[in-house]
Amino acid sequence: MEQADLLTQALNLTMFGMGFVFLFLTLLVFVTKVTSVIVQKLEARIKADSNQDNNSTTLEQEIDEETKFVIEQAIKMHRGA
For the residues of 61-74, what is the DSSP string, one character each? Predict the structure, then answer.
């Protein structure tokens, strides 16, 4: 009788554990998919906003010739050339 009770408890514990793991993994998949959708929407919005900014300048346009020369000289000094 005790072994049957022990077996029943083992089966209950197994089913409870497997059920918990199944629910956790299902929740994890759901959260991952929702996060993916949110990131894709935000990325599309950021791309749309950056396409609207036609006045954006590149690094080449921002740095004047004197600053560019000073940076090049500092790199050469650092490398020991």
Answer: HHS-HHHHHHHHHH
pLDDT tens per residue, range 2-15: 888 999 999 999 99
Six token digits for residue 68: 């560019």
Q: Amino acid letter at 23?
A: L
Taken in order 16, 20, 23, 29, the sign of the CA dihedral is negative
**Pairwise CA distance, residues 50 & 56, whole Å:** 9
Token pair in block for residue 10: 């083992």
Q: Indicate whether this model's pTM tops 0.90.
A: no
For the segment 59-77, what is each residue's pLDDT rounded down to a tens digit? 666 778 888 889 999 999 9
